Amino acid sequence: MARVLVVGAGVTGAALARLLHDAKTSTKYAGQVLVWEKSNITGGRMMARSFRKNRHVHVDFGAQYLTKFKSANDDIRELLVANGKLVNFEDSRIAQESSRAPSPDAEHTVSPDNLGFRSMVDFLLSDATVQVERGVERFDITSDGQVTVYSTDGHVETVDDLVLTCPIPNVLSILEKSHFQPAPEVLAALQAVQYSQRFAVAYLFDQSIAKSVQDLQWTSKYVGAEEDEVVRFLCWDTLKKGTSTQDGYALLVHTGVPFGLQHMDAKDKNDEILATITRSVQKLLPFLPDPVDTTLHRWRVSQTFKPFHDPASPSSSVPALVLHASPRIILAGDAFLGSGFDNCLLSAKHTASILLGPSSGL
Question: Is the full-model pTM beyond 0.85?
Answer without folding.
Answer: yes
